[in-house]
Amino acid sequence: MTDTPAIQIRDLVKRYAPAGSGEGKLALKGVSLDIPAGKIFGLLGPNGAGKSTMINILSGMVRKTSGSVSIWGFDIDRDQRNAKRSIGIVPQEIVFDPFFTPFEVLENQAGLYGIARHLRRSEELLRAVHLADKRDAYARALSGGMKRRLLIAKALVHQPPVLVLDEPTAGVDVELRRQLWELVTEMNREGVTVVLTTHYLEEAEELCDRIAIINHGTCIANKPTRELVGMAREKVVELTLDRDLGQLPVDAAFIKSEKTGERTIAITYNKDVSNAGQVLAAVQAQGFTIVDVTTREADLEDVFVSLTSEARPA
Ligand code: ADP
Ligand code: MG
């Protein structure tokens, strides 16, 4: 295993051409991101954030405006062929020729990559995505979930080290979502680096080792999932005191205390370890008189909201 990231993105900008007169949409505003090899990486962001734009630049479907991208160490401009061979992409939209069977879909894809007949793995891939019994069914007769699984198999035909799934579970029922999660985890266990985009926090939390949050074309966070989820174990109590603050109160149970105004402080603590009552007692014991108290609780949704609103500096 090397330290070379599976995907390296530097100062990536995409401005779509304007439909009429005007500027055109600035979908990516200079994103830099390293996606480590061997992991499951989540690209989390609301609709319109720029996730698909980024994925489509990786696949060559969208041309970047500026910046650079390498896949498995291959620059997508200078070494397009190797870059393309290193990645398999499952697009957000399901598109199939309805008259091909799953087996034919995979064989056709292998043909596109120039893979010799005896080296093709269509049967094996169908088994891997649990579609062996649908080998000869018409694609149009497959359920939505089966189609998604077939798309995953199709993306893996040329054995790329990196598999990218754009919103694999958007609009998918709970049962099927579970199935897809298992499949993605299996692929990763077999050594494939997985990148997936999602706007479900729960999904990113369940599946991903690391999560980057993208909003309005900017990457606003990039952390191990544990750390992001850890932020959701934190609670903040904001205190107003009766006089201007000299020094901040300190206590072993505080994760952080910061001055938010002349007479206000925000104290962050872990709700598994302490509670608001203990925090207040600790502050009073240090000679402060509290005149007002507000508390906020962060779940992952709040962490996301606070990161995606400009309220909190990065
Ligand atoms: P996401 O996948 O995160 O929902 P997209 O990358 O699809 O976001 O879109 C990012 C922004 O770029 C949106 O404002 C969207 O309307 C715009 N956009 C996407 N595709 C095009 C296009 N082909 N032409 C013009 N604007 C586009
Ligand atoms: Mg999208």
UniProtKB/TrEMBL annotation:
InterPro entries assigned to the protein according to its UniProt record, in alphabetical order: AAA+_ATPase, ABC_transporter-like_ATP-bd, ABC_transporter-like_CS, ABC_transporter_ATP-binding, P-loop_NTPase
Keyword annotations for this protein? ATP-binding, Nucleotide-binding, Transport
Q: Which GO terms describe its molecular function?
A: ATP binding; ATP hydrolysis activity
Q: Where is each ABC transporter domain found? A: 7-241
What protein name is recorded for this chain? ABC-2 type transport system ATP-binding protein
Any keyword ATP-binding? yes
Matching Pfam families: ABC_tran
Signal sequence, start to end: none
The family database entries (Gene3D superfamilies) matched by this protein are listed as: P-loop containing nucleotide triphosphate hydrolases
